[in-house]
Write a structure and sequence with these properties.
The chain is mainly alpha-helical. The chain contains 4 helices and no strands.
């Protein structure tokens, strides 16, 4: 065979292969699943990194310890997380009693 005949034979095999595609093997499917899983994990870590960067750059978030608002937010968050339902009820009652007294003072001034 000459060089031209070999090239024609290769071109014919490429254009019309003898064995047509019948599907993927088990190993190829496993590799595809591994690649998809790795891509998912990569996207997940990228999203978490960007969320963490947003939290660090926000001055009102508790994670930002450099600003006063961040420090007070962290303290308030710890206080709120540490309370149970009874504490919330008692705080509500004390606030309600205080506002009731303040409003009664204003109403008394208007009458007199």
């Amino acid at each position: 065979m000459t060089g031209i005949e070999e090239k024609e034979q290769v071109a014919k095999e490429i254009m019309e292969p003898e064995n047509k595609f019948k599907g993927f093997t088990i190993e190829e499917i496993r590799l595809q699943r591994v690649f998809v899983s790795l891509e998912k994990e990569s996207c997940k870590s990228r999203i978490l990194r960007s969320v963490r960067n947003l939290q660090d750059s926000n001055p009102l978030m508790p994670g930002n310890k450099s600003s006063l608002a961040g420090k007070t937010g962290a303290i308030a968050l710890k206080m709120i997380n540490g309370l149970n339902y009874l504490d919330y009820i008692l705080i509500g009652l004390s606030v309600f009693k205080g506002t009731k007294k303040i409003f009664s003072l204003f109403k008394g001034r208007k009458k007199g």
